[in-house]
Every structure is written in structure tokens, then in C-alpha cells.
Amino acid sequence: MVAIQPTKYIWANGKLVNWEDAKVHVLTHGLHYGTGVFEGIRCYQTPLGPAIFRLKDHLDRMEASARILKMQLPYSSEQLRSAIRELVKKNGLTDAYIRPIAFFGVSGIGVNPTGYPVDLFIAAFHFGAYLGEDGLKKGIRVGTSSWRRISPASLATMGKICGHYVNSALAITEAKAGGYDEAILLNEENYVAEGSGENIFIVKDDVLKTPPLSAGILPGITRDTVMRIAKEEAYRVEETNITRSELYVADEIFMVGTAAEITPIREIDQRPVGKGIPGPVTKRLQDRFWKIVKGENELYHSWLDFVDEG
């Protein structure tokens, strides 16, 4: 369990409310049927003040997820951008995890949400390394899950949709019970898909490989970030199907995500990855990533939404 330290305010349907007053009705459609969309966004302290990383891209993805559910978000991306910046300021945060969530509210009890109201909440709070500070530095242990990643033929895996994460919850619960830090899910075609909340990269002979969107993965924003900076570091990057056995012979493996950032994997299915320690490619990309999100690389300031700007 990742503990949350409550902050003062949550943004709820257009206004700031006290943390303890941010509540929903027990008959909320999204609670019963998973019909909601959300984002995980990080804010980092930089020399120019707190900055939210790739905020526009996150809000664009949230809109796309809502479109899949035929959900009309009640606020524009610009309104949500302003709300997020205000919330971070009002809560006095410099480093933060930001969770906007929209869901179908209360109207009836049927499965069909057509015509239901849409509620939208935003929380922001301090949040450390999702897979642990030790995990970031030394790597984590992962196990291949017996659960398969949901199929794009059954659910819209391109969307960050609440109900999809039952699949993830089953996988991570199993992994933790087995003594692992995280799970890797294969898809129904027996190819590597993703972790319970992260995308995956393997490194072999200095070539980076990551599963394609057709493998049923979420199009991760950190995944996209890593692909871009890896190419600029002159690494070859391939979006291609990856077999389970390729994991066992990889030189390096790492997971990426807004919460996980770039976390090395040191062991998979009781087999060491490479030398059993984070490899040089992973560490190089980590270093570049930290410099970007913390505002130390001016070439990437366009990815930073400075909270105190404007």
C-alpha cells in the first residue's frame, strides 16, 4: 500500500472543498461499473518553481479516454489546467502527484450510462517513489503474472479507464503474495504487455525494445518521453512484440510510468536481469529524465507547465 498524506483541498466539480468533504454517492455509476477515466500527473520542484510535467499531454489523453466511453467532460482542458495549477498552489505543494478523475454519477441503476451526469474531481498530494526509493536506485523484483492483460478486442486498452484496473489489481495482488515488488502481464497472444501500472522496456546489445500499442498496452506518456530521449541519446528504439524468454536474456529491463518514473528491474521470475543491478543504459536514461523533469535541461522546458507562470 502506498500511503497518502492528506492535503487541505480537493477540486470538486468546479470548486475547492476540504479534503474530508470530497465524497460521492453510493449509487455513483462509476463506482458500480468502473465507468470513469483518470490521469496520474507529477509536479516537480525546479529552479523556476514547481512545474507540472507534460500536463497538456495528460489532459489530451484524459479527453481521449472520455471519448472512448462517450463521456463529455464538463470542463475544457484549459479550465482543468487552471484548476490543477490553483490546487497545487492552494495546497502549498512543490513536488506532487496529481489525480484528476471523471466518472458517470447518479441517475439510475442500469449499466447503460447514457444521459448520466459526469462528476470531475482533482486531488494533489505529496507522493514519493511508487516502487520505493531503493527500487529506483537498486532495481526491483518482478514476477510474470498468471493473469493476462485485458485484450483490446474486449476493452479499449488505449484509454486510461477506471474499470480496466481490476486486471491490474489482480496481477499486483498475486505478485505481492509471491514476494515480488511488481507484476508483468503477458497478453492473450503470449507476448509481453505491461506491468500493473507501468510500461516496459528491455535492452539487448544497446537496442531498446518496448511492446507496441497493438499488444494491448496503455499509450504511456513516460513511455513516449523515454523513447524520445533514448533516440536523442543515439539508441535504437523498436516497438515490437517481446516474448517471455526475451525477458530472461535481456541485458537490462526497466519499467516506466508517471508514478514509477524510470524503475530498473534487477530480477524477473527469480532470474537476475543482466548482472542483477541497474545497467548503464537504464542509468543514463534515468539521469537524463531527472534533469528534464526537474527543469535542469532548458531544451525541454516546453514539457513543463510552471505553476507560478501567468
Overall pLDDT level: 97
Class of the largest domain, according to the CATH hierarchy?
A: Alpha Beta
| CATH architecture type of the largest domain | Alpha-Beta Barrel
Terminal residue distance: 37 Å
CATH topology of the largest domain, what is it called? D-amino Acid Aminotransferase, Chain A, domain 2
Radius of gyration: 19 Å
Total domains, how many?
2
Assign the structural class, choosing from mainly alpha, mainly beta, alpha/beta, alpha+beta, or little secondary structure: alpha+beta
What's the tally of helices? 8
| Overall morphology | globular
Description:
The chain has helices at residues 29-33, 55-68, 77-90, 133-138, 165-177, 221-232, 244-249, 280-293, and strands at 9-12, 15-18, 36-38, 41-46, 49-53, 96-104, 118-125, 140-144, 182-186, 192-195, 199-204, 207-210, 236-239, 252-257, 261-268, 271-272, 304-306. The chain has 310 residues and is of the alpha+beta class. Strand 8, helix 5 and strand 9 form a beta-alpha-beta unit. Strands 8, 9, 10, 11, 12, 13, 14, 15 and 16 form a 9-stranded mixed β-sheet that branches. Strands 1, 2, 3, 4, 5, 6, 7 and 17 form an 8-stranded antiparallel β-sheet that branches. 27% of the residues lie in helices and 28% in strands. It has 2 domains: 9-125, Aminotransferase class 4, branched-chain amino acid transferase, N-terminal domain (D-amino Acid Aminotransferase, Chain A, domain 1, 2-Layer Sandwich); 133-293, D-amino Acid Aminotransferase, subunit A, domain 2 (D-amino Acid Aminotransferase, Chain A, domain 2, Alpha-Beta Barrel). The longest helix has 14 residues, at 55-68.
